[in-house]
From TrEMBL, chain A:
Pfam families: 4HBT. CDD domains: PaaI_thioesterase. This is PaaI family thioesterase. Residues 63-152 form the Thioesterase domain. SUPFAM superfamilies: Thioesterase/thiol ester dehydrase-isomerase. It comes from the Bacteria.
UniProtKB/TrEMBL annotation, chain B:
Residues 56-131 form the Thioesterase domain. This is PaaI family thioesterase. It comes from Salipiger mangrovisoli. The keyword Hydrolase applies. Keywords: Hydrolase. CDD domains: PaaI_thioesterase.
Amino acid sequence: MSLRKPEPVQVVKQRRDLALRALAEGVPYVNFLGITFDRRGDELTGVLNFDEKLIGNPDLPALHGGVTAAFLEVTSIITLSWMSLWDEVESGRLDLASLEQGRLPRLPKTIDFAIDYLRPGLPRDAYARARVTRSGRRYASVHAEAWQDNRDRPIVQAVGHFLMPSEER
Amino acid sequence: MSTDAVAGFDPALSEELILRLPQARALGLKIASFGGGRAEIHMPFAEHLVGDPKTGVIHGGAVSTLMDTCGGASVMAHPLVEGHTATISLRIDYLRAATPGQGITARAECHHVTRSVAFVRAVALDEDETRPVAMATGTFTVPQLRESDAEGAA
């Protein structure tokens, strides 16, 4: 019996990063807000890259509450999609070339989203992670939070429910 | 900020209110009405707001920004509230996908205020006003209450 040789690290990384980039950059609104994703293994961190147009209150100044809410919703949706995409990326079932051409998998739909504003968002980058607390065949529950300078002082948190795309793709 | 716009709708003042917010400007928001604890704000359709390129449907996040802005505006349009408000919480139900190519209008009503908290409900509509796209309830801070006491003391 012979063990299969592991793939070279850069091949693995390239494949995963390509899939993630195609997924996130395929959504116009994600680009409009300037959200990108950092990846460590299968863990994603959303990055809201600061831009003047994200300001809601110019007096403070502070990020618009709608923007930080949208940031959490985007991070939740991309994290959910990424989880279901992961197996297909790893098994090679997913055709990366077609993904790059914008043939995205169907995305989960938001059923409801409840946002809890904890602190004003400062005029600088923000980071977010989403934790899928339940993932069923049809429904998923997600908790997400965003922070800036200090991970222990989140600026906003949210829980949401999502309708998962049906199996046939 | 003076809130003399309460009785009537002063488009100049309310446009200014919106245009001061860079994100509201980036979304092209327009105040349709403002006063008496109510606000109506329109967000035109734009390709860059699309959340699912397969369907062309506007992203929920853009709808939340519209609802949040409109909710805050309804608080500032309330006769008892003075000054700027901030969102404490917002919960949105997405009832259906907005029709691709159509703008979205939010209508918010600040239906109750206490010394510290303003309570808001809002609805988001596309061109088919009989079937709302989303509904929201939210709570907002009250920086200062005008002399006469509102009931309750949250």
